Amino acid sequence: MTGKIRALVVAGALVAGLAGCSSSDGDGSGGKVTLTYAYWDNENQGQAMTKIAQEFTKSHPNIEVKLQFTPNKEYWTKLQTAAAGGTAPDVFWMNGPRIGLYASQGALLPLSDKIAADKMDLGKYPKSLVDLYTLDGKQYGIPKDFDTIGLWYNKALFDAAKVKYPDASWTWDDVRAAAKKLTDPAKGVHGIGAMPWSQELYYNTIFQAGGYVISDDKKKSGYDDPATIEGLKFWKDFLDQKLSPTVQQMTDNDPIEMFKSGKLAMWYDGSYDASQYFKTEGLKAGVAPLPAGPKGKATVIHGLANVVYAKTKHPKEAWEFVKFLGSEQANRIQAESGAVIPAYEGLQESWVKSMPGLDLQAFIDQLPDARPYPVSKNTAAWARLETDAITKAFTDGQDVEATAKQLATAMNAALSQEK
Amino acid sequence: MSTAGRAVAVKAAARPATRRRLRDRDWVWGYAMIAPLVLGLAVFYLWPVVQSVYYSFTEWTLFGDATWVGLRNYEQLFTDPANGRALRNTFVYGGLSLLGIPLSIAVAALLGTRGLRLVSLYRTLYFLPVVTMPAAVAMIWTWLYNGDYGLVNYLLSLVGIHGASWIAEPSTALYALVAVGIWTQIGYNAVIFMAGLQSIPSHLYEAASIDGAGRARQFFRITLPLLSPSIFFVSVLSVINGLQMFDLVYLMLRRGNPAREDTQTVVSLFFSRAFEEGAKGYAAAMAVVLMLITLVLTVIQFRVQKRWVHYA
């Protein structure tokens, strides 16, 4: 087994080395520069990325963009190793949980001066996303897309159980009542899937209950707050009443697949999964804004950004490319592919229209209630504690309140180590 | 396989070596011949070990430099409850992987049965898991273990047992992984045992049967003692491999698996600390402690072997 691990490490180092070589290809070959652009979603967004890169080279003939795809599971490990070795891609995708770490440790090029010099208007992007990529007053990323969460439902199952489709007026009680009517053990159908996933599920209900995950000054965990615990209990009740498959079942069988195959009647999921539900044969899915909790409506908003590597050999060209990625033209290509909601103002409409039959407007309509994805400088250090604890809390026979309070203590300790 | 494993093999094999003085120029050739291996070992094994020890005394951030923090990482090691659990799981894994030894001996003995037909087919089948990619092994077993649609639970349902979600249930997941680990190792171990069995001189069995010893007595009095060097070699390897359990945990337990804490091994915890959370200095301290534990266990095995291993 050691042999295998070592082989993996060596292979990884080779790959990183090759990537490093390729990013300096352009040097000295008549002013032609090759940039490397790393991303992690080929299935949904590969086509759009290729097209954007081609369009960019059309308008910038001396810059070529080489796409570097890495599956999500290995993306961060590889990027981190490459960045530590000084050979990360010139431009790459960044997300909320990682931005604090990458920016604070000097792996990213601050873009504020360039934005000011080129008079780029950041007002074209949702403010919560621009803020997500600002650290200590400096802008590190240009928003690429955004996503909110919606209540997906299976129309055929609703029709069969004679339940009215969810709409914007729904509250938690409507979800509870519907889940009871839709659950049919004989057919293996459950009303809803209560999977311990943060962004898609419990962050939303925590906000709807008036709770919080992390305090605004990023110093304190919200998991010992009674409202936060109420947001978790919303899900635990479905599990206790067997209106949801067990966490173990949903670990064995991805709940996304269960929803697609008609085993789940309701399912909280992000706009980024719309295209796979749209493409699933025989699934008549609809989507509604998230139902309101005791403290009203809320949905988590998150979005990716394009960032520039601090040690890139071509900062000027990399900025040109990032600027292009943030342009209306590049956002339109993303919109038409239907994979994600483009961040650029006014283009959401074409995304909504890209999948006729799904009421995707629900995702856009929720923007006024959107709450930023909770992060701190080293989100990964407590996100892992969070995943383990909440998963445990949702598993049979566990007490949500006690587990959440323990989590708060552990998370506070992790936060106190951030500088 | 690991270097420790190789060392055991060399020690076991080269016992009756005679030494003679090398002539003047022979040593040049000798060193030239071993140079590729020694250099490879030094660059890829020994130097990283030295570096790990150094980094274990530093705080080594994600992309930045390492700053000396003395023993702080080690202090933290003993206060983090996750380490205790991971260590316990690792010991369970290392200990239970020894169960593969009797199974492998049985397989080796069966494959060595005289007059067995299709023997090379069986040998291939048993060895196949050894040369299969861990990712493929993990995927197949993930499906076999599936609580609702898995083959394991289907077979159990035939005899009226309602099986669990084997790798999602905290109480069963570790043992389910152990079973896969043993399964992948049987072929490799069986090859070693087959070689061991073949090297037992047949006249011993003839003499024993003339003296009236039955099959069982022959097995316990002749086969087992003379197989003991192989058993020792395999047990050292199994424990070392067990202590370094990583790939199955990483590949079979997906995000949000409720059994994650109960299956976390030292190496998988090391991986998340170093590469997911970016605490590389702290992770290096974990690696150093694991190395010391492995070293101590191996030394103990070498000490104890004097009492039960018979070199013919």
Task: Describe this structure as you would to a colleague.
- The complex is a heterodimer of chains A (419) and B (312).
- Chain A is an alpha/beta fold and 419 residues long.
- In chain A, helix 2 links the parallel strand 1 (33-39) and strand 2.
- Chain A has 19 helices and 15 strands.
- In chain A, the strands form five sheets. In chain A, strands 2-1-3-13-6 form a five-stranded mixed beta sheet, with helices on both faces.
- Mean pLDDT of chain A is 89; it is low at 10-29.
- In chain A, 48% of the residues lie in helices and 14% in strands.
- Chain A has helices at residues 2-23, 42-59, 72-84, 96-104, 112-117, 127-132, 155-160, 172-182, 198-208, 226-240, 247-252, 255-260, 274-279, 315-325, 328-337, 348-353, 361-365, 379-394, 400-416; strands at residues 33-39, 63-69, 91-94, 134-135, 138-139, 141-143, 145-146, 149-154, 190-192, 264-270, 285-289, 299-301, 305-308, 341-342, 370-372.
- Chain A has two domains: 22-147 and 302-370, Periplasmic binding protein-like II (D-Maltodextrin-Binding Protein, domain 2), CATH 3.40.190; 149-301 and 378-416, D-Maltodextrin-Binding Protein, domain 2 (3-Layer(aba) Sandwich), CATH 3.40.190.
- With 312 residues, chain B is mainly α.
- Chain B has a single domain (78-308), classed as MetI-like fold, CATH 1.10.3720.10.
- Helix content of chain B is 71%, strand content 2%.
- Chain B contains 15 helices and two strands.
- A two-stranded antiparallel ribbon of chain B has the order 1-2.
- In chain B, strand 1 and strand 2 (66-68) form a beta hairpin.
- Chain B is globular.
- The two termini of chain B are 26 Å apart.
- Residues 1-17 of chain B have low confidence and may be disordered.
